[in-house]
Amino acid sequence: MPRSTNSVSSRRKRKKILKLSKGFYGSRSKVYTVAKNAVEKSFVYAFYGRKRKKRDFRSLWIQRINAGVRQYGKSYSEFMNKLSEKKIKINRKILSYISMNEPNVFKKILDDIYSK
């Protein structure tokens, strides 16, 4: 029985990898075996990046809230503690938006928390 190869699907597989490696430096975008390794590594970086993004945004929100609170002589941890004591449920993303774009509303929140 003669040997048969499936050149269509193997070529398709190689083309897919080379397409994914488009824009990579040097042989990482030209040579299939090198490109395959580079693409696999890039998928690993992409996976970690998606996890990292969440962490980075949370820390950014915390920094923005802290900057907004410090204008009025308070600290971030104090502010968050008062929020939880008063059972006010506003997440950090919204609080950071308010502190940056709506300073009057943020001041009102601070006054309400610290007045009572």
Walk me through the structure:
The chain is an all-alpha fold and 116 residues long. The chain has a domain at 49-116: Ribosomal protein L20, C-terminal domain (c-terminal domain of poly(a) binding protein, Orthogonal Bundle), CATH 1.10.1900.20. It is built from 5 helices and no strands. 11% of the residues are buried.
The CATH superfamily of the domain at 49-116 appears as: Ribosomal protein L20, C-terminal domain
For the report, how would you describe the main beta sheet?
A: none
Structural class estimated from helices and strands? mainly alpha
Helix-strand sequence: HHHHH
Oligomer: single chain
| Helix content, binned percent | over 70%
CATH topology grouping of the domain at 49-116: c-terminal domain of poly(a) binding protein
Q: Please, how many helices?
A: 5
Radius of gyration from the alpha-carbon trace, in angstroms: 26 Å
Uncertain segments are none
Classify the beta-strand content into a percent band: under 5%
Which descriptor suits the 3D outline?
Answer: rod-shaped
- Named at the architecture level, the CATH assignment of the domain at 49-116 is Orthogonal Bundle
Tell me the number of strands.
Answer: 0
Query: Average pLDDT across residues?
Result: 93
Distance between the termini: 90 Å
For the record, what CATH class of the domain at 49-116 applies?
A: Mainly Alpha
